[in-house]
Here is the input.
Amino acid sequence: MTEPRGQDIISRLADRGEDVIGRIGELNLPGTQKMLETANQLRERADELQRRLRGLDALERRVDALEKKVDELSKAKAKASAPRRATTRRATAAAKPKPKPPPASGGNA
Here is the structure.
């Protein structure tokens, strides 16, 4: 089977571009080698930047999840530390014994 005509043109352009880049590398023009090295470094740095940005997405998701947990915990703590209604206790005789009266000091001496 043959490729669609549009793909054929793109493939030929890509091949020509590779050929031109190869020929530029073979030339001994001043600055050509430096230009190719700089372009290659730029490509490597762009790839590294993309990898780092993908890592940031994962970190953002983790931070969002942790923030939700903190919010839930702070709400639960606020409910637990809310002032409770005071209830009255009934005093019973069994709960608190009566104090004994002091011994009577008689004139027996």
